[in-house]
Fold this protein.
Amino acid sequence: MKIERFEDIQSWQEARLLVRDVYDILKGCNDRGFKDQMQRAVVSIMTNIAEGFERGGNKEFVYFLTVARGSLAEVKSLSYAGLDIKFMTTEQFTSIESRAQKLNGLLNGFISYLKNNQRTGS
C-alpha cells in the first residue's frame, strides 16, 4: 500500500491513539507542569511523524521519526513518574506502556525501511 498522506501512516495512527489516552488519563491531574510536559511530549510524537512525511525525502523523514522516538521515550519516562507519584493507576500506566511499546516497534521498523528504500514523491 502506497502512503499518500501522513494520516495513512500506521505509526501516526498509533501515536494519535496514544495522545487520546494520555489526555484522558491526565484530565484530572492538577499538576500543570507535569501535565503540560507529558501532553507536549505525546503530541510531539504524532506531529514529528507528520512533519517528516511532508518533507519529502527519506533522510529528513528518518530524522523526524527519530525525534518522534525520542519524544516517545519522554512519554514513557514521564509515565513512570506519573505512576510513582500516583497521577495514574497501574492499569493506566500499563495501557500507556503497551501502546508505547507497539509504537516504538512501528517507528523502528519504519526507520529501517526508509533507510533501505528510496521514496518517490511525497
Observations:
- The chain has a mean pLDDT of 94.
